[in-house]
Design a protein that fits this description.
The chain has about 260 residues and is mainly α. The protein contains 11 helices and no strands.
């Protein structure tokens, strides 16, 4: 990749965000609306709030809950997805229950989870898992079922079974689908992290944003929303880096197929 391509891609990546920030700045700088404060005031509050000890008190606990819920969802979703994808009888038997549970919005489960698991970190993590596990589970099932028949027959012919088949055929074949499910789960997890912290919490980003809203600290509330957007952007970028390293073979194959028409 030459320098011009790098510069062109960088320009494409920053042009729209820069234009939107400029538009926000221009339209708000003389604003006297209480609920639409000037962007410079919001940025001042951003530095005062989130570049201080509040980062460790509110942002770090939120990220730890999100990371824990995401990892648990990934492990649970992949394990169940592989089992259901490999066993038709098990999948048909579990399908009605899974469809029923999947149809329940995770937000309506928040009060129930708080009653069952209490108001500590465990309930916040459970809220994240209740919504994040489904994209991973369903994508894993589809990925396992869509494995190349030639690969399946080859494993059968050479007597590759059990853990070896799982490691060398099933999981690599399903990994693009699993990755797509993980990416969806990451976005859902960020939303549920905030929702979970809005109920019966004592710290966290969701808790702080609600407190700012209730006390009419509007610039501080906007600064928390901006921080959430930045966290989502950084997490997505990190996920893309990991995905490119883990699925380099698949992305290279897809690029080659695209070039060959």
């Amino acid at each position: 990749m030459n320098v011009m391509n790098v510069l062109r891609r960088t320009l494409y990546a920053v042009a729209l965000p820069a234009a939107l920030v400029a538009l926000w700045w221009i339209t708000s700088v003389d604003s006297t609306s209480y609920y639409y404060p000037p962007l410079p005031d919001i940025l001042d509050r951003f530095g005062e709030l989130w570049l201080s000890s509040r980062f460790a008190e509110d942002v770090v606990p939120s990220l730890l809950r999100l990371l824990t819920g995401f990892v648990l969802s990934a492990v649970l979703g992949v394990a169940l997805g592989v089992a259901l994808g490999l066993t038709d009888t098990l999948r048909r038997g579990a399908e009605p229950v899974l469809e029923f549970l999947r149809a329940l919005p995770p937000t309506v489960l928040v009060p129930v989870i708080a009653i069952v698991a209490g108001i500590g970190d465990g309930s916040k993590v459970l809220v994240i898992v209740s919504g994040c596990v489904w994209p991973v589970l369903l994508n894993t099932v589809e990925g396992v079922r869509a494995a190349d028949e030639v690969m399946v027959d080859t494993c059968r012919t050479y007597g590759i079974t059990g853990a070896a088949r799982l490691r060398h055929m099933v999981l690599p074949a399903a990994s693009p689908q699993i990755s797509a499910g993980l990416r969806q789960s990451l976005s859902i997890g960020l939303i549920l992290m905030v929702i979970g912290e809005m109920f019966a919490a004592t710290n966290g980003l969701g808790f702080s944003i609600v407190q700012f809203q209730r006390t009419f600290a509007i610039p501080q509330m906007w600064s928390g929303i901006i921080l959430l957007g930045l966290i989502g952007f950084v997490l997505s970028a990190l996920f893309t880096v990991v995905e490119k390293r883990a699925l380099g073979w698949y992305l290279g194959l897809r690029e080659s197929q695209r070039k060959n028409g």
